[in-house]
Design goal:
The chain is elongated. The protein is mainly alpha-helical. The chain is built from 29 helices and 4 strands.
Amino acid sequence: MDVSVQRSERHVSSLDGDDRSPPKRQKRSTDDSTVDGNLMRKGKACATCRKLKVKCDSAERGMSSCSRCRRLGLQCLSEKKSWTSADGDETSNIRLVIVKLERALEDVLEKLNMPALDLYIQPAIVEPSHPQRPTRQNSEEPSNGEKDLSPGAMKSLIEATRFNALSSQLRSVKQRRKGGMRRMDSDLISEKIMSYEEGEEMLQVFKAQLSRHLFSATIPADATLEAVRTSSTVLFTAIMLVSALHVPGRENLYELCHSRFLGLVSSAIFDRFHTLDDIRGLCIAAFWQPDLSWKLSGLCISIATELNLHHAFYDAHFIEDMSEELRRDFVEKSRLWYLLFVLDHQSSIAYGRPPVMAELRPIKDYQMFLNSAWCIPADRALIAQVTGLVVLNRPFEVFGFEPKREMGSDDASVLEYLRFEESVQAWKDRWKAICELHATVNTGLYEDVMLQYHFSELVLNSVVLRGRPLDQLSELPTSLRPLALKAIEAAHSILQHFIDDRNPQEKIMGMPLYLHSMIAFAVVFLMKLCNRWHLINITIDPVERTKPLVEGTIMLLRECKVGAKHIIHSMANGFGRMLRQPYWHGHTGQHTHAVKASSSSVPTKSTWHHIRSNRLEPNRVPEDNDQGLMFDLASATPTCFEPSTNANPEFSLGTWGFQDEELWTLGMGYDLLASGEYDITHADYIFPTSYGEQS
């Protein structure tokens, strides 16, 4: 009866228009307080397995996480949000993105043959000692704690506009992923271009022959191949490149390294992240690669200034509250900045172009660096080069780099030029005293100082002949003729320096391009003037003094065992061509035919003894060294240098290759490839028998 009454009441209420909906069913819960607005429903599979459409055993096992999520260390999400959730979509999307990232990372680790992702649970957070620094920062907000009252023009513009393109390069996601210069997974060894054993061999060649020319800014002596590969792919590739250039039989490896290095350089130009070792690698290639030297020197400086290497000297010497490790880092940056200065100014002198780097405070306050507790013997050799190049560059700030600009012969010009020469002499005397003070440390500093001194004398005094036609040499003003004589003596001294060396081949093989340009400039300068300097009353006998030195230099170059692509081959062949151009005059005054390559390019044993017995320097090396050199040279028969027996036809004496062009364009306006009356094909290098005889 009660049931019928209830039914009638519900029927009446519906007829009365009561539109109230029936109450919704409530899910039973043991604790009503745990129920919130975000209603949940239980699913059979977790979110990860459901997304990947794989079988999930969480419901079967009755556990909070499935076996797959436990194995991969993932968070097993077995609850699925109801469609009535207010903010569930956003949270679900975030979790889905995390799952995608984890899956993508698993694929990356598998591709790189690295440990699985579950091994990276709770990783230790370690700060790297030398992290990569972005060289093109994003637009920065002004710091609340520290504001620069004078931020500079560009920083002010970025701060005002917040325009990202002013300070960072716009790149695609793919480019960002490939950015950075640490690509050990795709370097020469990883891609099987060279074996690990070949890499070890090239690294040892670099340490033994080339590293010393980077002074204190080179790689550590105990650096391993793995350490170099890990630090910078640019550094590793550059070392392999220049080392393969110096090893005979590695021409194919050199070509592969050269191609790979060009790709890295192209990427480095627009890359945002660089390290000190990236700059070091670019410097190494710039020192030894003729086709890349000038452009790489500018790129090195650009990247270095973005890393604020020019601030490192101040931070190392004037900031007191600093840890020793951080101070050592600033000292290392200072050394690299000094090396960049050497590279820039050596390229400037060699190519006859103005330098890029200015003489900033680190250059002027070098004595503070020498007096610091961090100074090592290699630092003194580095600073010696820095100061010598500063002295050599100052005359060109006054007289210019233009090859057609003539030097004035008035008293004011001559006196000003003599002051520059006094500066060169004072530089030599100062560093000679430093060498004597540290005589117990054999770093080759004295030899480097003397060689730089002779080259400075040659470059400095040869400016008096710049812009003057050779056929009008007799019109050279009398006040400038003593300077021309000093240039000729300096050129002879450069060639004699290498001939007098105890191990000349070993020294010449590892020299950077700048030192090779010294030899080239000295030979070209002497060969162009030898048959004309009697017109300005210079009484040096070219046959007795100049010709033997050139022949001895050719012999030294030909005895250097380097790769076929090395510029030494082009130098020797170019000098040999120059010796074959004229008709030589004998001591009897009779006209003789042109000297053949076998005899003009290679001096005999007696000729070599004559070269060494007519030194420009008063001091002689011991006689046992003379005999040792003569013994070594006796085994080199003239026939082994015949063009017909040359193993590589690319370097035959009759060709004029690309490296020849790179060689002859060095040398302060004395360009053998320049068109005109005194081109190499029209040169007339005749050594007269008497000084009054016209050419």
